[in-house]
Write a structure and sequence with these properties.
Blueprint lengths: L9 H12 L1 H11 L2 E7 L5 E7 L5 E4 L10 E6 H8 L5 H6 L4 E4 L1 H4 L3 H10 L3
Parallel strand pairs: 1-4
Antiparallel strand pairs: 1-2, 2-3, 4-5
Helix pairs in contact: 1-2, 1-6
Length: 127
């Protein structure tokens, strides 16, 4: 899922491998997340690309804004650079949202359940 023009997209691979590595943890993440999280990242060239994390059924990461035939519960739109900082633990989602650097569409309360999943990727992603 990594795309060269989106350096932070490596985090989606890390999140996915974290979810796939441990069946119990994946089931726990699905139980706690109970949503499909979409991410719209804009790179330095101004192009936009989408990924999703399905914590409603499968506990998996994919390209596009939602699994086929499904709809995201919450969509987070931000720059590739800010997403990288958020996954690396250098900034918080709440700070990005409050400063207008991240826009949230859909169920804002579900967005708060994303933080623990991103924290798991911090140890695996080399951003």
């Amino acid at each position: 899922m990594w795309i060269e023009s989106y350096p932070s997209s490596a985090a989606f691979d890390a999140i996915n491998s974290s979810l796939q590595a441990d069946d119990t943890e994946r089931k726990d993440a699905v139980k706690k997340g109970n949503a499909i999280f979409a991410f719209k990242l804009k790179n330095k060239e101004g192009q936009e690309e989408g990924w999703h994390i399905d914590l409603k059924e499968k506990g998996a990461v994919g390209k596009g804004e939602a699994p086929e035939g499904k709809k995201a519960d919450v969509t987070l739109s931000l720059s590739d650079e800010d997403f990288g900082k958020m996954v690396a633990g250098k900034t918080q989602a709440q700070r990005l949202f409050m400063s207008g650097k991240m826009k949230i569409k859909g169920d804002v309360m579900k967005a708060t359940k994303m933080e623990p999943v991103l924290k798991k990727a911090q140890t695996k992603a080399k951003l």
